[in-house]
Amino acid sequence: MKYCIVTYGCQMNVHESEKIAAILEKIGYNEFTEKRDEADIIVFNTCAIREGAEDRVFGNVGALKKLKKQRKDLIIVVCGCMTQKEETAKLFYQKFPFVDIIIGTFNLPQLEHYISAVKTGRQLDLKTEGDIDEVNPYKRTSGENAWVNIMYGCNNFCTYCIVPYVRGREKSRKKENILNEIRGIVAENKYKKITLLGQNVNSYGQDLEPKESFSNLLKEICQIEGDFKIWFMTSHPKDLTDDVIDVIASEDKIIKDIHLPAQSGNNRILGLMNRKYTREKYLDIINKIRTKIPNCRITSDFIVGFPTETEEEFEDTMSLVDTIKYDSIFAFMYSPRIGTVASKMEGQVDEKIKNERVNKLLALEKKIQKEEGKK
Ligand code: 5AD
Ligand code: SF4
Question: What pLDDT score does 177 carry?
């Protein structure tokens, strides 16, 4: 029996699809295929971060109507961040009667149950919370890199972002569970890089009893013997404390590469985004990193066209990028997400202007890379 998993979105989803693969292999789907028309089960692991990502999922799921007509025994599953939203899950249920299983992010550990229950009818189920799943294993699929989740969810509620609504509040894994998983990965001798994952890794352990810190976790991971490197994402500028920068600087095992999303270079917009730092504070952190970790790679994410952003405020983002000279950036046009604070703000920016701004920012980044390359 063959299975196909179609993954959208971030590394977190890529890793979660490794869990889906392990569950499917356990129950008899023993061969992965990229070809949807060959598969006995197709799982769409979806992303809700921007409208574009959602549109792609709607299109690709819709395209399976014909295939399902020909192959009644084919099972189609839609799961992940999109279907964690009740309205979207219901929309899938009504609009695509050929989709068999619609579940959210918190139902994933019970995927096996939904697959066996599908005999009795279509499955639509959404939990609004769930404990960390330490039971289901992963089938690692990312070559020399092994993903390790250290925490789930997010408490930050940046006003544009859907993540806290579809992933719930921050929950850290117990340190011993993380260390044991990494010891196991290192013992397999197949992985050169271990990437720690969390929406906000710097606040790792703040919800544990007793509290733990990210810098301490990093130190303990580095004490594990073996030939491997550690990387992590994503860091939030408001929580990237000196102790973390010091550990990155002092530990050979940690890759000198920090993804530190700034989102905007303008203080009024940062305030409206609820980012809890200023341009000046952000620049301070960058300076600290560059002083303590010379040659550290630094990358960032930016959103252009946040509600009410003026041309001058966008220019502040341009000048921040020009000042810092990142090794690489991701730039996104602001996409209103239903249920978030920013989606209800007045002064939504025209798509055409967003498009111009994103192109301008990416052109600047390209120019910087060329100049830095020459140096
Ligand atoms: N619109 C555009 N970009 C967004 N991001 C998150 N939410 C939105 C949104 N509503 C971007 C941020 C984040 C990255 C993963 O996605 O820049 O850092
Ligand atoms: Fe979204 Fe902000 Fe949390 Fe990142 S820190 S996941 S942008 S709410």
Answer: 98
Give the contacts of 16 (CB within 8 A, at least 6 positions apart): 45, 80, 105, 108
- Tell me, yes or no, if the two domains 142-254 and 256-375 fold the same way: yes
Helix (H, G, I), strand (E, B) or coil at 107: helix
Alpha-helix runs per DSSP H in 189-266: 214-222, 242-250
Short-list 212, 207, 255, CA closest to 232: 255
* CA-342 nearest atom, ligand 1: 10
What is the per-residue pLDDT for 374?
78
User: Can you name the CATH fold of 256-375?
Assistant: Transcription Regulator spoIIAA (3.30.750)
| 0.90 exceeded by pTM | yes
**Closest to 315 in 3D by CA, of 358, 277, 261, 266:** 266
**Domain 142-254 coded CATH 3.30.750.210:** yes
Whose atoms come closest to the Cα of 259: which ligand? Answer: 1
**Which residues are registered as beta bridge partners of 252?**
none
Largest CA distance in the chain: 65
Locate the ligand 1 atom nearest the alpha carbon of residue 330 and give its number: 17
Which residues have C-beta atoms less than 6 Å from ligand 2?
154, 156-158, 161, 163-164, 199-200, 236
For 70-97, letters b (16+ CB in 10 Å) and e give eeeebbbbbbbbbbbbeebbeebbeebe
Spacing, Cα 6 to ligand 2 middle (Å): 24
Instruction: Kindly give the parts of the chain with pLDDT less than 70.
Output: none
337 CB under 6 A from ligand 1? yes
Joined together, the tokens standing for residue 320 give 């921040």
Cβ of residue 9 lying under 6 Å from some atom of ligand 1 = no
Query: Pocket of ligand 1, candidates 161, 272, 275: which has the most ligand atoms within 8 Å of its Cβ, to mutate?
Result: 161
Ligand 2 centre and the CA of 85: distance in Å? Answer: 17
The residues spanned by each domain of the chain are 2-125, 142-254, 256-375
Phi, psi dihedral angles at 170 (to 5 degrees): -60, 130
Is residue 1 within 8 Å of 29, Cβ to Cβ?
Answer: yes
Report pLDDT digits (tens) over 287-322: 999 999 999 999 999 999 999 999 999 999 999 999
Question: In CATH, what number does 2-125 get?
Answer: 3.40.50.12160
